[in-house]
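Example record used in the benchmark description.
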Amino acid sequence: MFSESKKPSAALGFLQGTMYSMPVFLFAGVPMRENYITVTESAQEYLLDLLSKQDSEGIGVRIFVEKPGTPSAECCMAYCPQGEQEPTDEVVQCNGFAAYLDQASVPYLEDAVVDYSKDRMGGQLTFRAPKSKVPKISDDASVEEKINYVLYSEINPQLAAHGGHIELTELLDDDTVAILKFGGGCQGCGMVDVTLKEGVEKTLLERVPELKKVTDETDHTVTENAFYK
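Model output (C-alpha coordinates):
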Protein backbone atom coordinates (compact mmCIF):
# COMPACT_ATOMS: atom_id res chain seq x y z
CA MET A 1 0.00 0.00 0.00
CA PHE A 2 1.04 3.57 -0.31
CA SER A 3 1.49 5.63 2.79
CA GLU A 4 -0.15 8.99 3.49
CA SER A 5 1.85 11.91 2.13
CA LYS A 6 2.00 15.53 3.25
CA LYS A 7 1.20 16.67 -0.29
CA PRO A 8 -0.31 13.99 -2.54
CA SER A 9 -4.06 13.54 -2.28
CA ALA A 10 -4.10 9.77 -2.03
CA ALA A 11 -1.86 7.13 -0.52
CA LEU A 12 -0.49 3.83 -1.76
CA GLY A 13 0.45 0.87 0.36
CA PHE A 14 3.44 -1.47 0.59
CA LEU A 15 5.23 -3.70 3.03
CA GLN A 16 8.13 -1.90 4.62
CA GLY A 17 11.32 -3.87 4.99
CA THR A 18 10.76 -5.80 1.82
CA MET A 19 11.82 -3.98 -1.48
CA TYR A 20 11.53 -0.77 -6.56
CA SER A 21 14.36 -0.45 -9.81
CA MET A 22 14.59 2.91 -11.47
CA PRO A 23 17.69 3.20 -13.57
CA VAL A 24 17.66 6.93 -14.34
CA PHE A 25 17.90 9.66 -11.69
CA LEU A 26 17.73 13.31 -12.65
CA PHE A 27 18.14 16.43 -10.52
CA ALA A 28 18.31 19.69 -12.41
CA GLY A 29 19.21 17.61 -15.45
CA VAL A 30 22.22 16.01 -13.76
CA PRO A 31 22.34 12.21 -13.22
CA MET A 32 22.34 11.23 -9.55
CA ARG A 33 24.36 8.44 -7.98
CA GLU A 34 22.66 5.21 -8.94
CA ASN A 35 22.94 3.66 -5.50
CA TYR A 36 20.30 5.93 -4.01
CA ILE A 37 17.16 4.03 -4.89
CA THR A 38 16.29 1.13 -7.15
CA VAL A 39 12.82 0.46 -8.47
CA THR A 40 12.70 -2.95 -10.07
CA GLU A 41 11.01 -3.58 -13.40
CA SER A 42 8.26 -5.58 -11.72
CA ALA A 43 7.60 -2.70 -9.32
CA GLN A 44 7.49 -0.20 -12.19
CA GLU A 45 4.99 -2.37 -14.06
CA TYR A 46 2.83 -2.70 -10.96
CA LEU A 47 2.94 1.02 -10.20
CA LEU A 48 2.21 1.99 -13.81
CA ASP A 49 -0.87 -0.25 -13.70
CA LEU A 50 -2.05 1.42 -10.48
CA LEU A 51 -1.44 4.90 -11.84
CA SER A 52 -3.26 4.16 -15.10
CA LYS A 53 -6.42 3.46 -13.08
CA GLN A 54 -6.40 6.85 -11.34
CA ASP A 55 -7.85 8.78 -14.29
CA SER A 56 -5.36 11.60 -13.68
CA GLU A 57 -3.12 12.64 -16.55
CA GLY A 58 0.52 12.96 -15.64
CA ILE A 59 0.12 11.42 -12.19
CA GLY A 60 3.26 9.99 -10.63
CA VAL A 61 4.39 8.84 -7.20
CA ARG A 62 6.19 10.69 -4.41
CA ILE A 63 8.71 8.92 -2.20
CA PHE A 64 9.76 10.26 1.18
CA VAL A 65 10.84 9.23 4.66
CA GLU A 66 8.93 10.24 7.77
CA LYS A 67 11.09 10.88 10.86
CA PRO A 68 14.30 10.12 8.93
CA GLY A 69 17.42 9.24 10.87
CA THR A 70 15.47 8.01 13.89
CA PRO A 71 14.35 4.55 15.08
CA SER A 72 10.80 5.57 14.09
CA ALA A 73 11.73 6.29 10.46
CA GLU A 74 9.09 5.13 7.99
CA CYS A 75 9.46 4.93 4.21
CA CYS A 76 6.41 6.23 2.38
CA MET A 77 5.05 6.39 -1.14
CA ALA A 78 1.98 8.32 -2.30
CA TYR A 79 0.17 9.24 -5.47
CA CYS A 80 1.43 12.57 -6.79
CA PRO A 81 -0.98 14.24 -9.23
CA GLN A 82 0.45 16.64 -11.78
CA GLY A 83 1.11 19.98 -10.11
CA GLU A 84 1.53 18.62 -6.59
CA GLN A 85 5.27 18.06 -6.89
CA GLU A 86 7.57 20.13 -4.72
CA PRO A 87 9.99 22.43 -6.61
CA THR A 88 12.91 20.80 -4.79
CA ASP A 89 11.88 17.19 -5.49
CA GLU A 90 14.44 15.07 -7.29
CA VAL A 91 12.90 13.34 -10.29
CA VAL A 92 13.26 9.69 -11.22
CA GLN A 93 12.04 8.86 -14.72
CA CYS A 94 10.46 5.41 -14.77
CA ASN A 95 8.76 3.42 -17.50
CA GLY A 96 5.65 5.48 -18.18
CA PHE A 97 5.64 7.70 -15.09
CA ALA A 98 7.81 9.84 -12.84
CA ALA A 99 8.76 9.31 -9.22
CA TYR A 100 9.47 12.40 -7.12
CA LEU A 101 11.93 12.07 -4.26
CA ASP A 102 11.54 14.43 -1.34
CA GLN A 103 14.89 16.25 -1.31
CA ALA A 104 15.33 16.03 2.48
CA SER A 105 14.72 12.27 2.30
CA VAL A 106 17.28 11.53 -0.43
CA PRO A 107 20.26 10.86 1.89
CA TYR A 108 18.15 8.32 3.78
CA LEU A 109 17.15 6.53 0.57
CA GLU A 110 20.69 5.45 -0.25
CA ASP A 111 20.68 1.77 -1.29
CA ALA A 112 16.87 1.70 -1.03
CA VAL A 113 15.03 -0.89 -3.11
CA VAL A 114 11.37 -1.03 -4.13
CA ASP A 115 10.16 -4.32 -5.51
CA TYR A 116 6.97 -6.15 -6.40
CA SER A 117 6.63 -9.89 -6.13
CA LYS A 118 3.65 -12.08 -6.85
CA ASP A 119 2.38 -14.57 -4.30
CA ARG A 120 -0.66 -16.75 -3.77
CA MET A 121 -2.58 -13.74 -2.42
CA GLY A 122 -1.84 -11.77 -5.59
CA GLY A 123 1.37 -9.94 -4.80
CA GLN A 124 2.97 -7.32 -2.62
CA LEU A 125 4.88 -4.09 -3.09
CA THR A 126 7.86 -3.85 -0.77
CA PHE A 127 10.22 -1.05 0.24
CA ARG A 128 13.62 -1.63 1.83
CA ALA A 129 15.66 1.41 2.90
CA PRO A 130 18.54 0.27 5.14
CA LYS A 131 19.84 3.81 5.73
CA SER A 132 16.48 5.38 6.65
CA LYS A 133 17.07 5.06 10.41
CA VAL A 134 20.74 6.03 10.39
CA PRO A 135 21.36 9.53 11.84
CA LYS A 136 22.85 11.91 9.27
CA ILE A 137 23.77 15.56 9.23
CA SER A 138 24.75 18.01 6.51
CA ASP A 139 25.75 21.67 6.31
CA ASP A 140 22.23 22.68 5.28
CA ALA A 141 20.43 20.41 7.75
CA SER A 142 17.21 21.69 9.32
CA VAL A 143 16.95 22.34 13.06
CA GLU A 144 14.88 19.18 13.40
CA GLU A 145 17.55 17.12 11.64
CA LYS A 146 20.30 18.60 13.80
CA ILE A 147 18.41 17.85 17.01
CA ASN A 148 17.61 14.29 15.97
CA TYR A 149 21.20 13.73 14.97
CA VAL A 150 22.44 14.76 18.42
CA LEU A 151 19.71 12.78 20.18
CA TYR A 152 20.20 9.52 18.28
CA SER A 153 23.95 9.59 17.75
CA GLU A 154 25.12 11.04 21.06
CA ILE A 155 22.50 11.37 23.82
CA ASN A 156 20.35 8.27 23.45
CA PRO A 157 23.29 5.84 23.26
CA GLN A 158 24.34 7.12 26.71
CA LEU A 159 20.82 6.88 28.14
CA ALA A 160 20.45 3.35 26.77
CA ALA A 161 22.61 2.10 29.65
CA HIS A 162 19.71 3.02 31.95
CA GLY A 163 17.08 1.75 29.53
CA GLY A 164 16.06 5.29 28.62
CA HIS A 165 15.62 7.35 25.47
CA ILE A 166 14.44 10.79 24.36
CA GLU A 167 12.59 11.89 21.25
CA LEU A 168 11.78 15.26 19.74
CA THR A 169 8.01 15.76 19.56
CA GLU A 170 7.68 19.37 18.39
CA LEU A 171 9.48 22.59 17.54
CA LEU A 172 7.96 25.96 18.50
CA ASP A 173 8.68 29.68 18.09
CA ASP A 174 10.35 29.49 14.70
CA ASP A 175 12.27 26.35 15.63
CA THR A 176 13.93 27.95 18.67
CA VAL A 177 12.14 25.87 21.31
CA ALA A 178 12.44 22.07 21.32
CA ILE A 179 9.79 19.95 23.04
CA LEU A 180 11.17 16.58 24.15
CA LYS A 181 9.63 13.41 25.52
CA PHE A 182 11.51 11.02 27.79
CA GLY A 183 10.79 7.30 27.64
CA GLY A 184 11.87 3.98 29.13
CA GLY A 185 14.03 4.32 32.23
CA CYS A 186 14.02 8.13 31.90
CA GLN A 187 10.26 8.50 32.39
CA GLY A 188 9.53 9.22 36.03
CA CYS A 189 13.22 9.01 36.93
CA GLY A 190 14.17 10.92 40.09
CA MET A 191 17.22 12.33 38.29
CA VAL A 192 15.35 13.55 35.22
CA ASP A 193 15.77 17.26 36.04
CA VAL A 194 19.52 16.83 36.26
CA THR A 195 19.55 14.79 33.04
CA LEU A 196 17.54 17.47 31.25
CA LYS A 197 19.31 20.59 32.49
CA GLU A 198 22.90 19.43 32.90
CA GLY A 199 22.97 16.90 30.11
CA VAL A 200 20.38 17.08 27.36
CA GLU A 201 19.58 20.80 27.31
CA LYS A 202 23.21 21.85 27.65
CA THR A 203 24.30 19.51 24.86
CA LEU A 204 21.53 20.52 22.46
CA LEU A 205 22.04 24.26 23.01
CA GLU A 206 25.75 23.81 22.30
CA ARG A 207 25.30 21.61 19.23
CA VAL A 208 22.28 23.41 17.73
CA PRO A 209 22.91 27.18 17.94
CA GLU A 210 19.44 27.99 16.57
CA LEU A 211 17.88 26.60 19.76
CA LYS A 212 17.08 28.92 22.66
CA LYS A 213 15.16 26.60 24.96
CA VAL A 214 14.52 22.90 25.60
CA THR A 215 11.30 21.75 27.31
CA ASP A 216 10.18 18.37 28.65
CA GLU A 217 6.55 17.36 28.07
CA THR A 218 6.84 13.90 29.67
CA ASP A 219 4.33 12.71 32.26
CA HIS A 220 6.79 11.82 35.02
CA THR A 221 4.07 10.64 37.38
CA VAL A 222 4.43 7.29 35.58
CA THR A 223 7.40 5.70 37.35
CA GLU A 224 7.06 1.96 36.78
CA ASN A 225 10.05 1.87 34.40
CA ALA A 226 12.08 4.62 36.05
CA PHE A 227 15.76 3.90 36.63
CA TYR A 228 15.90 6.07 39.78
CA LYS A 229 12.70 6.36 41.81
